[in-house]
Design brief:
alpha/beta, Rossmann fold, 13 helices, binds S-adenosylmethionine
């Protein structure tokens, strides 16, 4: 008999959730904004920048955590930043795509199916580990980052481009309010108020999404000395531009002006308080000495296990609901109730119409039946009268 699943996390059943369109960075201006804010230079991607700031270093062998369909390592291999790549992911389907694409391009990449939370990292001898949009899907962040610290040599590099904002995109009130106000300032045709992420829907679609994103930076700092940490932003632009069909569906100068307006507001918001950033680029070297601090390591492991066990007992929920989430769920309940009431109303209206139709159809029969009864009654009466007349 299969063991019951006691994990605090489950993974997405449908791996296509990772490559849907309509996100903010599908817009070319946003892609350029992300590059500039990640690297501090225009038109420079994060890996070219990494090479520059590590003294033109080429990495011999790189590990790509939660590599998905492998496009990131293909870019680094093709750019000559990395000589050899190893990717791990839990999705066989995505790994298949990665293997095929690397083979077609003739690139030296190997792939392993791994649950990052439980399995060992494959192979060894890495001088670079890349976290590209991976850590925000990891439940056991401390365990995984500790392994990365172990597997890298002291001069090895851990490089990251990731979402480090609130867990499961449960934004705070001030940020959400600022995003709504920004929408109000846009030309009417592009005004599409974002929906606050509905937690039960997120848990049903991809329970790993942003599972502990707000713990990433603190946990990384336990094991790595960061040489660079650049807040990319996104607190306003990500919710306002992602899935905004008017923006994505209407290319042209007016749309471009709107995107610029949103990005300028996003940059001002992030500059005012860089901790508000949703996305960050950072890189650093492992602090190997921490691996000797047995008591500290044991305490971190206990803390993580307790958190995950508590979540396992609470259907994967970790944190209290934000006020906005409570309101969102109440609104959703009312919406469902409303749609049931509407369905009831439509059914009753249909039944009434059907009954009226039946009454119309039955009327001739009814009239005929009444006529026949009256006729019969008259005959009976006449017969009775005749009988009574004879008696008299
Ligand atoms: C947002 S995608 C990023 C993929 C890739 N790094 C990229 O940028 O295209 C997150 C990835 O994490 C993987 N993932 C989620 N949970 C995982 C787990 N427990 N172990 C390994 N991979 C996991 C998913 O299959 C998915 O490929």
């Amino acid at each position: 008999m299969a063991e019951p699943d006691t994990r605090s996390y489950t993974v997405a059943q449908d791996s296509s959730v990772y490559y849907g369109g309509g996100y903010w960075n599908d817009l070319p201006q946003v892609a350029a904004y992300i590059e500039r804010r990640a690297t501090g230079k225009p038109d420079t991607d994060w890996y070219t920048h990494l090479k520059d700031v590590t003294g033109g270093r080429t990495f011999r062998k790189a590990l790509f955590l939660n590599c998905g369909n492998g496009w990131v390592e293909r870019q680094l291999l093709e750019a000559g930043i990395v000589e050899e790549a190893v990717g791990t992911d839990i999705s066989d389907e995505l790994l298949d795509q990665a293997r095929k694409a690397a083979a077609v391009a003739g690139l030296p990449a190997r792939y392993y199916a791994r649950d990052i939370n439980t399995a060992d990292l494959p192979e060894d001898g890495y001088d670079l580990v890349v976290n590209f949009a991976a850590a925000h899907h990891i439940a056991y962040l401390d365990k995984v980052l500790r392994r990365v610290c172990e597997v890298l040599p002291a001069d090895g590099v851990f490089a990251s481009v990731d979402y480090v904002g609130p867990h499961r995109n449960q934004y705070g009130y001030a940020q959400w309010q600022a995003a709504q106000e920004l929408v109000e300032q846009l030309p009417e045709a592009f005004r599409s108020a974002p929906n606050y992420p509905h937690l039960p829907t997120m848990l049903a679609g991809d329970p790993t999404e942003a599972i502990h994103s707000e713990l990433i930076l603190d946990t990384v700092r336990r094991y790595f000395r960061l040489e660079e940490l650049n807040p990319i932003g996104g607190a306003l632009a990500y919710p306002v531009l992602s899935f905004n069909s008017a923006v994505h569906g209407t290319p042209g100068p007016e749309r471009d002006a709107v995107v610029e307006q949103v990005l300028a507001a996003d940059e001002a918001w992030t500059t005012e308080d860089p901790d508000r950033t949703l996305f960050a680029f950072f890189w650093g070297h492992p602090m190997k000495a921490v691996l000797d601090e047995q008591d500290t390591l044991a305490a971190w492991a206990r803390e993580e296990e307790a958190r995950e066990q508590a979540a396992a007992a609470a259907e994967g929920r970790y944190y209290p609901l934000t006020v906005l989430q409570q309101l969102t769920q109440e609104l959703e309940t009312l919406r469902m109730h409303n749609s049931h009431l509407l369905a009831d109303l439509h059914r009753t209206t249909d039944e009434k119409a059907a009954l009226l139709d039946r009454r119309v159809a039955l009327r001739p029969v009814l009239v005929r039946t009444l006529d026949e009864r009256a006729h019969l009654a008259m005959r009976l009466l006449r017969g009775l009268r005749r009988l009574l007349g004879r008696r008299r």
